[in-house]
Amino acid sequence: MRDATEALIVIDMQNDFCPGGALAVAGGDEIVPGINALMDEFQTIVLTQDWHPADHASFAANHPGAAPFSIVEMSYGQQVLWPVHCLIGTEGGAFHPDLRTDPAQLIVRKGFRAAIDSYSAFFENDRTTPTGLEGYLDSRGITQLTFVGLATDYCVAYSALDAVRLGYKVSVRRDLCRGIDLGGSMEEARGQMIGAGVVLLSA
């Protein structure tokens, strides 16, 4: 068992991000057994959950004539327009059925505000509106974070970079993540994480 100052953050292990889902990440379901096993090492476990209303601004369907995966300018910066995914209360938004959820003490739902997307477990995409995760971790005395889940180049990377910015010691288990790789986003995210001081682990 790891020290009580360490926490495992499991990012968006939901049906819509797994094969057969609305925004499937290739091999997304392959990492579930490894994540389940890793939970046994941690005293503090947090799950995040993408949780969107149907009128969410990040959905291409809500921008007439816009193609999925195109980029638009929002008040908070550039936004990829995604296929409709992880709608509140739907099967697609639910956790993968094989994922262990009982060991988690906290589930952070993000992206529920229609006007702004939320990749990071800590902040919405304006980089200032908090999810409340930082306060929870600080109250538990957590100083080190290990990230796993989906997708490496978006929600995992954004969360890891924000965690470093907030002063946590951060590692990402690359073998327990899978990426989308949209226009070279995997290599870009990897470079950003290494540059920020995130430790990338393969096991």
Describe the overall structure.
α3 runs parallel beside α4 (185-196). The two termini are 16 Å apart. β6 (144-150), α3 and β7 (169-178) form a beta-alpha-beta unit. It is globular, with a radius of gyration of 16 Å. It contains four helices and eight strands. The longest helix is centred in the last third of the chain and has 14 residues, at 152-165. It has a six-stranded parallel sheet with strand order 5-2-1-6-7-8, with helices on both faces. By secondary structure, it is α/β, with parallel strands linked by helices. It has helices at residues 32-38, 133-139, 152-165, 185-196, and strands at 6-11, 44-50, 71-74, 77-80, 106-110, 144-150, 169-178, 199-201. The mean pLDDT is 97.
Tell me the layout of helices and strands.
Layout: E1 6-11, H1 32-38, E2 44-50, E3 71-74, E4 77-80, E5 106-110, H2 133-139, E6 144-150, H3 152-165, E7 169-178, H4 185-196, E8 199-201
Parallel strand pairs: 1-2, 1-6, 2-5, 6-7, 7-8
Antiparallel strand pairs: 3-4
